[in-house]
Amino acid sequence: MAEKRAALSEAERRARSDAAAARLLALPELAASALSVAGYVPAKGEIDPGPVLAEVAARGGAVALPRVSAEAPRLRFHRAGGTLAPGAFGLLEPAASAPEVALDTLDVVIAPGLAFDAEGRRLGFGGGFYDGAFGPAANAPRGAPTRKRRAVLIGLAFDFQIVARCPASDADVPVDLVVTDARVLRPARRPPAEPPA
Fold it and tell me: Could you give the C-alpha distances from 166 to 97, 128, 183, in angstroms and in order?
């Protein structure tokens, strides 16, 4: 999958990213104006959620980007808007001084991956960062408060990254839906959100 992504021309990557962004912004989960949405900055040929994050900010929502931490949860989110700098694995991250956003205040998290399937299983990059951040409370450090709610996890991918079945273990957290440049896959376990009144 990484090789297929790398083979895309910049024009094709942009066109496919724009198509996926239009699908994402049409979802009821992103219809409210004051959402707190986490995304990512593509670094390894991933589809780009940038147009979605820009639209969320333009609507008055809050945008967060991930930072890798040495302590659990190893994936944390900080307010976007300042200068980004290379962090762990060469990923562009907000500065450590950017305000951290509590996981239970995020409404939507847009997650990258190498592959997804129609049941929401996700093949990440092998570090378990998203699984550790959004898995069961049992994964939280001892003494940490239990999260009251979990954000809607949306996998974002090029359509060729959809496979018949992703390998997954009990520790792998599935996404609630997958959006590609060609379609939206919504596993039966999670109904669509009601549009805000």
Answer: 37, 15, 18
Beta strand segments in the chain, E: 36-38, 62-68, 75-79, 84-86, 92-94, 100-101, 108-111, 115-116, 122-123, 152-156, 177-179, 184-185
Cα dihedral: 118, 114, 24, 154 (round 10) = 70
Helix, strand and coil in the chain, % to nearest 5: 25, 20, 55
Task: Check pLDDT > 90 for residue 140.
Answer: no
Could you tell me which residues come within 8 angstroms of residue 168 by beta carbon, excluding any fewer than 6 positions away? 121, 122, 123, 174
Structural domains of the chain, with CATH: 2-185 (3.40.50.10420)
Q: Is-contact 64 36, C-beta < 8 A?
A: yes
pLDDT per residue over 20-60, tens digit each?
999 999 999 999 888 999 999 998 889 999 999 999 999 99
Could you tell me the two tokens for 183? 């379609």
Q: Which residues of 98-117 are buried (b: 16+ CB within 10 A; e: fewer)?
A: beebebeebbbbbbbbbbbb
Does the reported pTM lie above 0.70? yes
